[in-house]
Every structure is written in C-alpha cells, then in structure tokens.
Design goal:
It holds the Pfam family ADH_zinc_N. With about 350 residues, the protein is α/β, with parallel strands linked by helices. It is built from eleven helices and 15 strands.
C-alpha cells in the first residue's frame, strides 16, 4: 500500500510502498477513506512523542470501511462504515471498566504507538471497544474530522469544562480544535470570544458562532476582561503555548476554569499563587471514548452542530509531506482532510 513514511525527525517524509497491515486477534483493518492532518502529527514528526519509533507512518484522525476482520471480533463485518477515537483503549482495565477509555493505561494510538492512517489501510486494535458505526448520511471527510479535534473539543467543552448557557468562554487558537470548540460552546448557549493571530481564522470563528474575536496582542487579557465584565468563566488553550496559558489564567474571573487541550512539549510555568488565591481550576482533557460518540452524533444529525463546515481543504496523499512540514510556520484555519488513493 502507499503510505507517508517518516524516516528522520524534522525531515520531510516520503510517500512510498509499505506492507499492508494484517488484522491481529480482536482487531480490524480499515481501508482509509479520509484522514485529518493535525498539529499532533506535526509534534510526532518533530520528535516530541516518545512512543514513536522510526520509520513511522503518522495519522490518527480517520474514517473508512472495514477491509478485514481479525479473530474474536463480533458485530462487525467487511464493508461497514466506521470511525474510531484516536485513543484505542484496551476495554478491560480499571479505567475502561469505569468508562474512562480516554485515559486507558494500555491504550494504543494510530500514528503514535503504531503505524497510522496516512496510508491506504490502517489497523484498529480492540475493535469491539473502539469502533464507531457511521450514519449513512455522514461523509467520510466529516467523520475523519470528528476523531480527534472535534471529539476532543466536544468532551473538553461539554463534559470536562462543564460549559453552560450564558457563560463567557474564551478560546485561544482557532485551528481545528479551537474552531470546533467555538462551534460547540456557542451551540451550548455560551458567549464565545475567539483569540488568534490569523485574521482568516478569526473570520471563520465568527461564522461558527463567536460573539467576539480578538487579534492576539499584549492587550488581549485586558480586552477579555472588558468584554466579560471582569473575566471569563472558562478559557481554553487549543494551541499549546506557555504564553497562552499565562493569558488564559489572567483572563479568568475568580473560580474560573481553564481547559488545557493544546500540547506543551516544552513545559509550562504556572502562577500557582493565583490558582490558589482565585480558586481557579486547571483541567486537562484528552480525547473522547467511543461510547460517548452517540450524543455528539445525535447533535450533528439534528443540525445543532455542523462539523463539515470546518473542513477548509482536501489534499491527496502525495501532498501530505509538504502540508505536514508547512505546520512549522503556523496552523492553517480549519481542517485539512487527506484522501488516500482510491
């Protein structure tokens, strides 16, 4: 099969022929119909993820059809249209038993712990726990966009951040995660402020429900405090930046909640005194388990959420190496979806 292969960190990968995966016991192999290009893929390419062993095929946001079924898998057959969370949980540990598959200690992640979806085919382990059946009217492109950024934002905003109607919510960074969060928070009735350096991203944020947008500047915190009457109820770092973390915490009102979704490979400095004195909450959020997808899919089916509009670019597999390398210069607005060869 054709796949994007990383041989050296930070060196553009190549598209080449590699062996097609075979389904292990309890696993399936999918024919990849669509896969998303995410900043997490860039972190992996740069060598920020210790789970990656070179040579490596990235890609963790995916949708496709089942091409092969391993022994012990029931309820699924060749041809089924499916997606999967980027965290493939084991299904049998203590965390999985409690419904917290997103923090399974034995989790596998396509594109990180094993070869991923920047390819014609990809394996999905622990299939009975991790496959999500797609509605017939949901496109593969839209479904691929759900698997990491949209699902991560949905759980972060709705379940971890507990965003409620009428609250002031500030989203820092309007790439795929951030724009998804804008749409979801607005759909829940929050008043959303979007912050970014990119005017095109801010334009999309307004289209997706942001009541206010701010071009990032040294005055951002004061502008937020003015717009929110003293500070936001919830802030979210959707990019991953020490500077954004500091601004996010300063922009909160007392007893406010900060959501950290963007990765921070270089670490972060926290004003713990402010966390204590203002009784702020620092909340990490990491993906969403397959069993939680039905609520999100129902809202999509009802038209309350429209993740398809977040897709701003589709590219063939051959253009993926250049698109991955371009993330070194910034995150483009919206979602980029990759189409492997038919």
């Amino acid at each position: 099969m054709r796949a994007v292969v990383i041989s050296q960190y930070g060196v553009p990968p190549v598209v080449t022929d590699v062996p097609r995966p075979e389904p292990a016991d309890g696993a399936v192999v999918l024919k990849v119909e669509a896969t998303g290009l995410c900043r997490s893929d860039w972190h992996g390419w740069m060598g920020h993820d210790p789970d990656i062993v070179l040579p490596h095929v990235p890609g963790h946001e995916l949708a496709g059809t089942i091409a092969a079924v391993g022994a012990g898998v029931s309820g699924w057959q060749v041809g089924d249209r499916v997606t999967t969370p980027f965290i493939c949980a084991c299904g049998s540990c203590e965390q999985c038993s409690e419904g917290n598959q997103q923090v399974c200690p034995r989790q596998e992640q396509p594109g990180f712990t094993y070869w991923g979806s920047f390819a014609e085919y990809v394996a999905v382990p622990y299939a009975s726990v991790n496959l999500v059946r797609l509605p017939d009217d949901l496109s593969f492109d839209t479904a691929a966009g759900l698997g990491c950024r949209f699902a991560t934002s949905f759980r972060a905003i709705r379940q971890v951040g507990r965003v409620a109607a009428g609250e002031r919510v500030v989203i820092f960074g309007c790439g795929g995660v951030g724009l998804s969060a804008v749409m979801i928070a607005a759909a829940l009735g929050a008043r959303v402020i979007a912050v970014d350096t990119n005017p095109a991203a801010l334009k999309l944020a307004r289209e997706y429900g942001a009541a206010d947008t701010l071009q990032a500047s040294p005055d951002t915190v004061q502008e937020i405090r003015d717009l929110t009457g003293g500070g936001a109820h919830v802030t979210m770092d959707a990019l991953g930046s020490n500077d954004i973390v500091q601004q996010s915490l300063l922009a909160l009102r007392p007893r406010g909640r900060h959501l950290q979704v963007g990765l921070l490979p270089s670490g972060v400095q926290l004003d713990v005194g402010r966390l204590i004195g203002q009784e702020l909450e620092w909340l990490g959020s990491h993906g969403m388990p397959a069993h939680a997808y039905p609520e999100m899919l129902h809202l999509v089916a009802q038209g309350n959420l429209n993740p398809s509009v977040l897709i701003t670019r589709t590219i063939p597999l051959d253009e993926t190496p250049a698109a991955l390398a371009a993330l070194s210069h910034g995150t483009p607005a919206g979602l980029t979806i990759i189409h492997p060869p038919a």
